[in-house]
Amino acid sequence: MIKAIIFDLDGTLVHTEILKAESYAQAIQILTKGSVLQKMVMDSFGKYVGLSRAGVVDGLFEEYKKPLSEHLDGLDPDTVKERIIKSRLAIYHQMLNDKTTLSGHFCKYNLELLRRVHKDSFRTVVATMSHSFEADKVIEAMGIRGKLDFILTSDDIVQGKPHPEIYLKVKNMLKMEPAECLVIEDSLNGIKAGIAAGMNVFAVTNNLTRREVHAANILAPSFIIDDPKELINRVCHFIVENR
């Protein structure tokens, strides 16, 4: 029996993954003085969705090491990565402070599911690779804090997704078995984390994650939702079937 619904945040309840991708793309374009275009970073960002900040920066540094090294000559790799993070965070926090921009990225149907399962007395949790400062700002903007039992962020764990640590910690805090938990994710890394934790997982894909999720072939098609309008019916049907 399903007793808890665990939601990823970025790309699942709000399309901040797009904003994150744009912030990294802008930062790298600036740091390489335009030799790496924003579109190049955006096109390759899908494989980094769901990773911790360190994981994203490590991946992007390796991918664009040559132009970054050429334009930040003399700096060691760790310093270059710090420059990427500093530049990118300044851009991203500016985006988060723009309430109009942020509200335009809310995932309507996914949020509706959260509100419905909360109303039906399921335990509801957010488990995200965002840091707590950013997660708190986004959750406050969406007005869902009162509908959540608790929130876990990358600050609460050692190993980020695709490692299952965050979902295992949720399970322990809820005092539930993995089979009693249903995860809603958008990214391949998040899906892997949920599966590794032994939980039921639904993927609600978006433009950044769709190709990676389908290509991985680790979820049955019935658990992959490309049209968010189908999410509520599919999830509620699954819950009823597993009473």
Automatic annotation (TrEMBL):
Keywords, alphabetical: Carbohydrate metabolism, Hydrolase, Magnesium, Metal-binding
Entry keyword Protein biosynthesis: no
InterPro entries: Beta-PGM-like, HAD-like_sf, HAD-SF_hydro_IA, HAD_sf, PGP-like_dom2
Gene3D superfamilies: HAD superfamily/HAD-like, Putative phosphatase, domain 2
Gene Ontology molecular function: hydrolase activity; metal ion binding
A Pfam cross-reference name: Hydrolase
Names of the cofactor(s): Mg(2+)
UniProt record similarity statement: Belongs to the HAD-like hydrolase superfamily. CbbY/CbbZ/Gph/YieH family.
Protein name per UniProt: HAD superfamily hydrolase (TIGR01509 family)/HAD superfamily hydrolase (TIGR01549 family)
Naturally occurring in which organism (per UniProt): Arenibacter echinorum
Organism lineage string: Bacteria, Pseudomonadati, Bacteroidota, Flavobacteriia, Flavobacteriales
